C-alpha cells in the first residue's frame, strides 16, 4: 500500500466520522512520526508534510554534515561528509542534508500497522467527541428514537446514529414504548466504561420535569419565574414550588396556564402524573399548608430540634392530606424538608374514641408509630378502614393488621 492510497482511505474514513481537517492532519502526522521513532529511535530531525486532500506525503530526514573524523559523527542529527557526498557530490561540511524517506522503506508490516492505528485513533476520537458532546448536555432534554427494547433498558439512537440508554429505573412506570417511537428524556449522566462512553437518559429525574416546564412556560425559561424545588413520585404525583420576584406575575397561574393549557402538556408527557404547583414562601407553616394541598390544615406545630411537624386536620381532610398510596404526605415532607405527622382533630362525637397510645401494652410502639405516620391516631380511625387500605398505606404485614383489628374491636365490644 503506497502513501497516496493509505492517506486517501484514511481521509475518507475520517470525513465519514465528521472529523475536521486539522484534527485529521494531526492524527496522520502523529502516526507517521510514531513509525519514524520506531525505525530511527527519534523523530526530532524529521520533517513530515501531509496533504490529505491529494493524498501526498513527504518525509525528510534532516542531518548536518560533519567531518568524517568528528566526535559528533554518531549523533542522530549528524552525517559524515563522505556519506553526504554519496547523496550529492558537492555537499560541504556545515551544510544540511534533506534526505527523502519513502513510506516503503518502513516495510509492509509497519504500513499495515499504521493503517490499523489510524482507524483506531479515529474510533477513539469519535468516543471522545461523543463523551464531550453529551457531557455538556447533562441535564438537558433530547429526543431519540427507540431501536431495541431489552429487559432492563431501552436502547435509543440519536440523529447522528449514536447509541443512548434509558434504564428501567429511569423510566416512568407507565411508559410503554415500541421500536421507532420518539422518546423525550434528559441526559442524566455520561459514564466511561472500558474506554466506551455510555450515555444514560432519565425520565424520572426532577430535572426532566423542570426542563418540561421551561419548554412550556416562557416565564420560567426567561427567569421571571423561578422553580425553587421539585419532588416527584414518577408517574404518580409531583409537587413543584415556584416563586416570582415580579409582583405582577402570578407564578402558579403562569405555570398552569389558561384552563390548564400549559401544565396539561407536561402532564401528558409524564403519563398523566398529577402535578401540584405551589407558591413558595419562607413562612414555614404557610408553606406546609400549601404543600399538603388539596387538604385544608386546621393547625400546625413545628419542632425545630427533631425537624418534625405535627399537622392537625378535620377527619374528612386526613385522607386528602395523606393522598393515594401516601404520596401526598411523602412529597410534602420532602418538599419542605421536615417529617410531617398528620393528626385527626377530635370533635364532640369522638368522646368514645380511644387514642392509640392507650393500647401500648398490647400493640408494639413501632406499630403505633407506623399507624400515626398515616394520620391514624385513634382506634376508630383505624377501624374505619379496611384491611386492604391499611396494607396499602403502611408497611405492616397482613397478620399484624389482623391482630390490630382484633385488639381494637375487643376494646369497643367491652
UniProtKB/TrEMBL annotation:
Keywords: Cytoplasm, RNA-binding, Transcription, Transcription antitermination, Transcription regulation, Transcription termination
Domain S1 motif, chain residue ranges per copy: 139-204
PROSITE patterns: S1
Domain of life: Bacteria
Pfam families: KH_NusA_1st, KH_NusA_2nd, NusA_N
InterPro entries: DNA_repair_Rad51/TF_NusA_a-hlx, KH_dom-like_a/b, KH_NusA_2nd, KH_sf_prok-type, NA-bd_OB-fold, NusA_N_sf, S1_domain, TF_NusA
Record's subunit section: Monomer. Binds directly to the core enzyme of the DNA-dependent RNA polymerase and to nascent RNA.
Function, in words: Participates in both transcription termination and antitermination.
Homology family: Belongs to the NusA family.
NCBIfam families membership: NusA (TIGR01953)
Name of this protein: Transcription termination/antitermination protein NusA
Organism of origin: Algoriphagus aquatilis
Gene: nusA
Amino acid at each position: 500500500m503506497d502513501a497516496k492510497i493509505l492517506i486517501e482511505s484514511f481521509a475518507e474514513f475520517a470525513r465519514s466520522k465528521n472529523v475536521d481537517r486539522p484534527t485529521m492532519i494531526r492524527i496522520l502526522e502523529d502516526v507517521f512520526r510514531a513509525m519514524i521513532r520506531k525505525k530511527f529511535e527519534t523523530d526530532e530531525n524529521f520533517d513530515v508534510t501531509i496533504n490529505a486532500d491529494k493524498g501526498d506525503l513527504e518525509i525528510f530526514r534532516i542531518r548536518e554534515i560533519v567531518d568524517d573524523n568528528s566526535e559528533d559523527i554518531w549523533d542522530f542529527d549528524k552525517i559524515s561528509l563522505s556519506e553526504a557526498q554519496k547523496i550529492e557530490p558537492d555537499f560541504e561540511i556545515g551544510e544540511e542534508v534533506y534526505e527523502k524517506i519513502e513510506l516503503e522503506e518502513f516495510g509492509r508490516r509497519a504500513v499495515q500497522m499504521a493503517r490499523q492505528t489510524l482507524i483506531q485513533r479515529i474510533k477513539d476520537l469519535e468516543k471522545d467527541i461523543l463523551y464531550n458532546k453529551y457531557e455538556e448536555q447533562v441535564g438537558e432534554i433530547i429526543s431519540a428514537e427507540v431501536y431495541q427494547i431489552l429487559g432492563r433498558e431501552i436502547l435509543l439512537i440519536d440523529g447522528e446514529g449514536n447509541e443512548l440508554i434509558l434504564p428501567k429505573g429511569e423510566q416512568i412506570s407507565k411508559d410503554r414504548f415500541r421500536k421507532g417511537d420518539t422518546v423525550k428524556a434528559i441526559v442524566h449522566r455520561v459514564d466511561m466504561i472500558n474506554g466506551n462512553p455510555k450515555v444514560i437518559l432519565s425520565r424520572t429525574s426532577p430535572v426532566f420535569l423542570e426542563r418540561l416546564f421551561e419548554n412550556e412556560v416562557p416565564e420560567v425559561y426567561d427567569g421571571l419565574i423561578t422553580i425553587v424545588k421539585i419532588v416527584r413520585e414518577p408517574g404518580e404525583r409531583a409537587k413543584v414550588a415556584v416563586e416570582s420576584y415580579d409582583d405582577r406575575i402570578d407564578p402558579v397561574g403562569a405555570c398552569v396556564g389558561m384552563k390548564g393549557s400549559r401544565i396539561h402538556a407536561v402532564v401528558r408527557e409524564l403519563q398523566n402524573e398529577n402535578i401540584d404547583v405551589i407558591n413558595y414562601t419562607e413562612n414555614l407553616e404557610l408553606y406546609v399548608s400549601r404543600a399538603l394541598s388539596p387538604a385544608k390544615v386546621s393547625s400546625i406545630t413545628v419542632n425545630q430540634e427533631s425537624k418534625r411537624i405535627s399537622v392537625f386536620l378535620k377527619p374528612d381532610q386526613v385522607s386528602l392530606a395523606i393522598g393515594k398510596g401516601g404520596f401526598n404526605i411523602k412529597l410534602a415532607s420532602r418538599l419542605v424538608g421536615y417529617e410531617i405527622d398528620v393528626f385527626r382533630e377530635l370533635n364532640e362525637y369522638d368522646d368514645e374514641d380511644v387514642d392509640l397510645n392507650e393500647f401500648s401494652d398490647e400493640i408494639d410502639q413501632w406499630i403505633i408509630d407506623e399507624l400515626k405516620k398515616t394520620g391514624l391516631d385513634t382506634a376508630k380511625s383505624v377501624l374505619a378502614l379496611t384491611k386492604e387500605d391499611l396494607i396499602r398505606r403502611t408497611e405492616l404485614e397482613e397478620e399484624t393488621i389482623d391482630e390490630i383489628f382484633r385488639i381494637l374491636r375487643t376494646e369497643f365490644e367491652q
